[in-house]
Design brief:
This protein has 478 residues and is α/β, with parallel strands linked by helices. It is built from 19 helices and 15 strands. The chain binds uridine-5'-diphosphate-xylopyranose. Uridine-5'-diphosphate-xylopyranose (UDX) binds next to helix 1, helix 14 and helix 15.
């Protein structure tokens, strides 16, 4: 084995400017710094602005607290070309067009300046979100090793990277409700067209987000290393197959979610959190259903209404995170008239919470989720089984892992329409029916897999160490 201990690594880290990507990136930065790397973490300016506002943080440097504890993490911001108050979700196409076409030149200039600066130790590594298509090109220009961090399951990675194969087989774009099994995607026994990511569907292929995502998938196999935010034991066949093409490391979930002294000292939440502990503590163990659809997707008032009345009919206790922007219509009146009065005692509705604190509370026995990958991993980490209501992006594909592969959840509806009676029946059966204990037992098994992976000598820990070793070895041999 080569002696790789000599070389001090300095990595610049660029997360995608969304909650579901910021969380794993901050955790990764802290973890790598705790293993001796120098890190420069770069947030978009508007993200910095929102984080300081939501967390009432007076610090201009979000990482100052962890730096005081001895970690070498530097912090910087970059403009995306829009003013901080620009409403990016409202102007999604314009925003993403600019991220795709204009932002790479800003990153290029930023990195060029940093490399030329006397204040910065020599940079050797660029770690960027896999959905930034610019990273392999810019890394090569500056002779940096390119690390692509994929914050979703390996299943999504292999399907996305084999989009040309799916096209050759006549399954792209997916038309209407057409359901066919794909048995040729490397590393996947079988996946139905209905479980492919939403940007594989015909109605989405003209969108700018689709173009950005596909440009990124096209570039992912050019990365020197790929970090996967998943666990080896959960997706071993897929990961083994991917590792034949590229150095591949499953390092999820990077940090223990329930014992997080370092990571809680860095502002990550883009919204202010409400503490629900007192309310949850007042409920019997396992009796509360937690409901949340993550940080970005929107839905219709009709869907909210059917879930709301389904919950009432089921008579289950529930805690619902209803973001003020959850409705596609922009309406801020989210719930049916009188609903808030009808739920007194049984239900609590909040705009945002510390989700990991909620999921780890003994009161919680289930999670109605949109299947965002962070929510899915956090639920697994806490041993909470799921009721799945995927909306967009990777969520339908993540649902397949939860319901069909790992068997730690059920579907809320058939995915086409949703009715309160069916919702009530599903919820009652899930929380207290005959199959309920089976889901809880299975969720406990998956929880153990995640906890073991993060233990000393566990697969995620080993893979992260191997990644750092391989990085150093590659730099020494360049
Ligand atoms: C987006 C995409 O929708 C998802 O498919 C992709 O996998 C990641 O990016 P998002 O909607 O942000 O995801 O969901 P998710 O990945 O679950 O991330 C949400 C994060 O927000 C989680 O880490 C969760 O802990 C946090 N959260 C959510 C809170 O802290 N408080 C809340 O009230 C709700």
């Amino acid at each position: 084995m080569a002696d790789t201990s000599c070389c001090k690594l300095h990595a610049i880290i660029f997360p995608l400017p969304y909650q579901g990507h910021i969380n794993p990136f901050v955790n990764l930065a802290i973890k790598l710094a705790s293993k001796g790397l120098t890190i420069t973490f770069v947030h978009a300016e508007h993200i910095h602005h929102t984080l300081t506002k939501s967390n009432m943080d007076k610090e201009t440097d979000l990482f100052s607290a962890v730096r005081k504890s001895g970690l070498d993490i530097r912090y910087s911001t970059i403009t995306d070309g829009f003013p901080v108050e620009f409403d990016r979700p409202l102007h999604l196409d314009e925003y993403w067009r600019s991220l795709l076409n204009d932002f790479p030149a800003r990153v290029d200039e930023f990195i060029g300046n940093m490399i030329g600066s006397a204040d910065s130790p020599p940079v050797s590594v660029l770690i960027a979100d896999s959905f930034f298509a610019w990273s392999p090109g810019i890394a090569r220009k500056y002779d940096l090793l390119n690390v692509s961090f994929f914050t979703q399951p390996a299943l999504v990675f292999t399907v996305g990277c084999h989009w040309d194969l799916v096209t050759q087989n006549g399954h792209f774009p997916v038309k209407g409700d057409n359901e066919e099994e794909l048995k040729y995607v490397p590393g996947v026994d079988s996946i139905s067209t209905k479980d492919l990511m939403s940007y594989f569907k015909e109605e989405e292929i003209e969108t700018v987000v689709h173009k950005a995502v596909f440009a990124a998938f096209h570039e992912m196999n050019r990365a020197d290393f790929v970090l996967h935010y998943t666990v080896q034991e959960l997706e071993s066949k897929t990961l083994d197959t991917l590792s034949k093409n590229q150095p591949t490391y499953a390092i999820g979930p990077v940090y223990s979610f329930t014992n997080r002294p370092e990571t809680t000292r860095v502002a990550k939440s883009l919204r202010s959190e409400l503490d629900c502990t007192k309310w949850l503590d007042s409920k019997p163990p396992g009796s509360v259903l937690y409901v949340s659809f993550g940080s970005v997707v929107q839905t219709s008032k009709q869907v909210i209404q059917e879930i709301a009345y389904g919950l009432l009919l089921s008579e289950v206790n529930f805690l619902w995170v209803a973001r003020e922007d959850i409705l596609k219509s922009g309406d801020s009146d989210i719930f049916p008239d009188g609903f808030q009065d009808e739920i007194k005692g049984k239900g609590l509705i909040v705009p945002w919470c510390d989700q990991i604190m909620v999921l780890s509370n003994r009161g919680v026995g289930g999670f109605v989720t949109h299947c965002g990958w962070n929510s899915t991993l956090e639920s697994m980490w806490c041993g909470v089984p799921m009721i799945c209501n995927p909306v967009a992006y990777d969520q339908p594909t993540n649902r397949k892992l939860v319901v069909e592969d790992l068997k730690i959840g059920i579907n809320l509806s058939d995915g086409v329409s949703i009715h309160r009676e069916e919702v009530a029946e599903k919820i009652s059966g899930f929380m207290s029916g005959s199959a309920s204990q089976g889901f809880r037992d299975q969720a406990e098994k998956v929880k153990k897999i995640l906890h073991d992976a993060l233990d000393n000598g566990g697969s995620s820990e080993r893979n992260l160490d191997k990644f750092i070793y391989d990085l150093r070895a590659k730099i020494i041999n360049l």
